[in-house]
Amino acid sequence: MVYQVGTVPALLLGAAQPAESPLSQIARVLHLPVAAIDVAALIVLLAVALVLGYILKRLFRRYALKFEGTWGELILTLLESLPIPLLILAALYTALEQLSLPPKWDHTGSEALLVLAIVVLFYFPAKGAVLFLERLSVKQPALERVTQPATLAVRILFAMVAMIVVLENLGIHLTAVWTTLGVGSVAVALALQDTLGNFFAGLYIMMDRPINLNDYIRLDAGGQEGTVTRIGWRSTQLRTIQNNTVVVPNSTLAKAVVTNYSVPEERLAVAVQVGAAYGTDARRVEKLLVEIAGAAASEGFEGLLATPEPVARLVPGFGPSTLDFTLTLHAQRFSDQAGVQSELRKRILERFATEGIEMPFPTQNLILSRAPHRTPREGERS
Question: What is the pLDDT of residues 131-144, one digit of tens each?
Fold first, then answer.
């Protein structure tokens, strides 16, 4: 059998040619570059991934509402954010493997696929931790002050680690950056020393909870007192009885000895000092004081509590010019004590005047003695 020269290689080459891809056929039919068809296919893949991801997200959200208040809600809420990024990852991977994208697009897509995979890898553990903390704060509102900074710390930590991993995988080495940050952080820490001190003191106040909103407190350091209206990261605000706002730095509040008049309860004892003249029957005075306070409480005077019952004692006792009594009763809250004391003092004055009980005021006698006449000595002038 005789073959022409070059026939066999030609046949073998023809048999080795790969089959034309569907996208190449479409490009040939439409008389368009293959690269344009590949780019259009990439856009279609991403659009389909977004649509399917949105549908799945809505489906997970609907089922999460059915399991409200259970662990199923936490799991479905976490899964709710999975479909869109995972489907976009699948679309990018498919495009890079199956399409003949331009070299620049192929390189950019590979980097985008890597970055997105790392972000997804770190995002979902952080999302799970945040959802758990939020669920914990809903179940136990008292822990909200702890879960809020913890949530912020989790987000910052995962974001920083993810950024470091992304930059390292993109070939950006951070050795010089860490050196610069190490030197710069010292300068920043010195410049923001007071601010950082207030910030960490605010964390301590929120976690330890020595005070709460609407508590009436008094500080020993500067004597500031008032109702707590706001506890922030840098400062705490108090509203005084005069309806003014006092802003106390958290570092000052953390160092001060704080008297909290709202803990363990808002009710507090109020003492009214009363003086009577010596010679007055002390038992009679004590009985009258208890009757006056009891009558005011039974009439429903605002802020005065009928229980515990008022008590009068001869304390502190023997004063310079009076018998000193102390009437102890209870007010509903700290802000009521001034009105209660004023009302009782007026009633005591009226009742003592009716009963003929004298309330003397302090007196002082000044005795002037004249020096005896002395005869001048010899040589002295008279």
Answer: 777 777 777 666 66
Question: Cis bond leading into 376, ω under 30°?
Answer: no
Strands (E), 31-113: none
Domain identity same for 201 and 165: no
Burial class (CB in 10 A: 0-12, 13-18, 19+), 62: exposed
pTM exceeds 0.70 = no
Residues of the chain with pLDDT under 70: 1-39, 69, 71, 97-107, 109, 140-146, 173-192, 365, 369-382
How far is it, in rounded angstroms, from Cα 89 to Cα 124? 15
Assess contact for 290 and 350: CB atoms under 8 A.
no
Number of C-beta neighbours around residue 312 at 10 A: 23
CATH of the domain at 220: 2.30.30.60
Q: Which domain holds residue 83?
A: 22-173
Question: What is the per-residue pLDDT across 293-349, written as a single tens digit (0 to 9) for each?
Answer: 999 988 888 889 988 899 999 999 898 889 999 999 999 888 888 899 999 999 999
- The number of distinct structural domains making up the chain is 3
